Amino acid sequence: MASNGKQTKYIIVSGGVISGIGKGIIASSTGLLLKTLGLTVTSIKIDPYLNIDAGTLSPLDHGEVFVLNDGGEVDLDLGNYERYLNVELTRDNNITTGKIYREVIDKERRGDYLGKTVQVVPHITNAIQDWVERVGNISTSENGRAPDVCIVELGGTVGDIESAPFIEAMRQFQFRVGHDNFCLIHVSLVPVVGAVGEQKTKPTQASVRDLRGLGLSPDILACRSAIPFEEGIREKLSMFCQVSPKQVFSVHDCESLYHVPILLREQGIIDVLTDRLKLNELTIPAEIRSEGTTLWSQWREFARRRARDLDQTTIAVVGKYTYLTDSYISVVKALEHAALNVNRKIKINWVEASDLEESSMHKDPLKYHEAWQHMCGADGILVPGGFGERGVEGKVLAAKWAREHKVPYLGICLGMQVAVIEFARNVCGMSGVHSTEFREDCETPAVIFMPEIDRSTMGGTMRLGSRPTKFQDSEFARNSMTRKLYGGVDEVHERHRHRYEVNPEIVKELESKGLHFIGRDAETGERMEIFELENHPYYVAAQYHPEYLTRPLSPSPVFLGLILAASGQLQAYLGGEDVSKDVDTKLKM
């Protein structure tokens, strides 16, 4: 139960017509708007696939695998929730068909069902409801208050076979929690077709009809379209979908995703939710209500900057999943957050790492030269994490270019490892240097398999979740740019996802040549976490994934450092100068 003694209120977000319609952004935006009222909000994502978690899914198939503090490998939408709502979720906030069936089968094996025939209804549907109700009452906010509202995104599309048990569970759930504690937002598509660009409502009508046939009636329609509603469209949808015109919202393409909460608020979604869920009856402390007001003014300023014609900073992202940018969605958001907080607009040059390799010059010279042009023309270079050998040598070349030409560089996870390989080869002069991930019998292993990791099982066996990193007590570490960016603290907690690490046996030689490992794991001091290169504008890498903790109003320090260095502002910032002095409204960095 929520701290005010009342039942937690639930907002279900379903989707129709097509997948990938934007349910996650609608859910996150709705949660943000409720937070601006001073309400405490949490969220749950339901994924109807049979996998236990997202850890073994290909980024090219399903987008980024997002990692939580507790080590949960989850859908990228949970990253959106954390960024928009500034909460810390757990693996239980991501429900999959695999998790539900495993729980029910484990109970059946223990004899918990007392010899009954175990069926989808009621056992699977009850397990889903119990999970949602249990997690919906757990605090995930900084203030420690139990949630007033829990937003549940129902993955997939209404009518999918795999979604059927979850739809049925939510049909039952509306009666379990009561009418005033249950609201359904249905996200649908209003396509623009024909030479004259006419908006069509039939797909949404059919989707709502399917939903109603399954026992759920939408309270709010959020209609995705390329353009705002034409005259009469809202009224037509209202008539055929049996909702009031004020409950039909046009979610058309806008300047950025940060404008979606503004778009919904301007159309009156807060009034509709307040009326439908009796939000006025909740008791909200004045201090928290004031924080909500401040949050809204900050968010509007952030969105305003996104739409302004700011000075542009170009970052080359050298990766292996660049054909689907959702594979790096947290990296993209971290770059955006850092740039906008220092009054810059980010431009990303996507560079496929394998196109930088010499073999590409013979296979496809055009791609080869374009890749090098995009990387060499950037103000900074970022090499993100990844798995597998494809493109590794291209990433090594990117690290070499940044080091030799004094271009600001940030390496993340594998991006750190390839920079170590490059430095060991070309600065230290070591022979046969590689990672045992790609060359198990290499002469000089710069990167090795972590001894405690299970080699036989793939799912959930990496070094996962939030781990402490301790800055070293050396003169270079104490005065390092990275430590200053983190505010001069002794220890930071960041999220990890890796099986391989820098070989500690070669660290002494690397450091003697100027590559300083300024941060090591707090548990043993033997695991390399952060390096910084001396006599370079910004050459920094981390074994952890700093992008997982970025927030629109609180950017990741190492990403902030990359943008500041790439835009020529880093030394001024570290010297205490206000790099956004020409901005009317300050963001709380």
Any chance you could write out the topology, listing elements then pairs?
Layout: E1 9-15, H1 23-36, E2 41-47, H2 59-62, E3 66-67, E4 73-74, H3 77-85, E5 94-96, H4 97-110, H5 120-135, E6 149-154, H6 164-177, E7 182-189, E8 192-193, E9 198-199, H7 202-213, E10 220-225, H8 233-241, E11 248-252, H9 260-266, H10 269-277, H11 286-307, E12 311-319, H12 329-341, E13 344-352, H13 358-363, H14 365-376, E14 380-383, H15 392-404, E15 409-412, H16 414-426, E16 433-435, E17 444-449, E18 463-471, H17 475-478, H18 481-485, E19 491-498, E20 500-502, H19 507-512, E21 515-521, E22 528-533, E23 539-542, H20 557-566, H21 570-574
Parallel strand pairs: 1-6, 1-7, 2-5, 2-6, 7-10, 10-11, 12-13, 12-14, 14-15, 15-23, 16-17
Antiparallel strand pairs: 3-4, 8-9, 17-20, 18-19, 18-21, 21-22, 22-23
Give a short summary of the structure.
The protein has 21 helices and 23 strands.
Give structural notes.
The chain has 589 residues and is of the alpha/beta class. The protein is built from 21 helices and 23 strands. The strands form five sheets. Strands 13-12-14-15-23-22-21-18-19 form a nine-stranded mixed sheet, with helices on both faces. A seven-stranded parallel sheet has the order 5-2-6-1-7-10-11, sandwiched between helices. The longest helix has 22 residues. The model has no long low-confidence stretch (mean pLDDT 91).
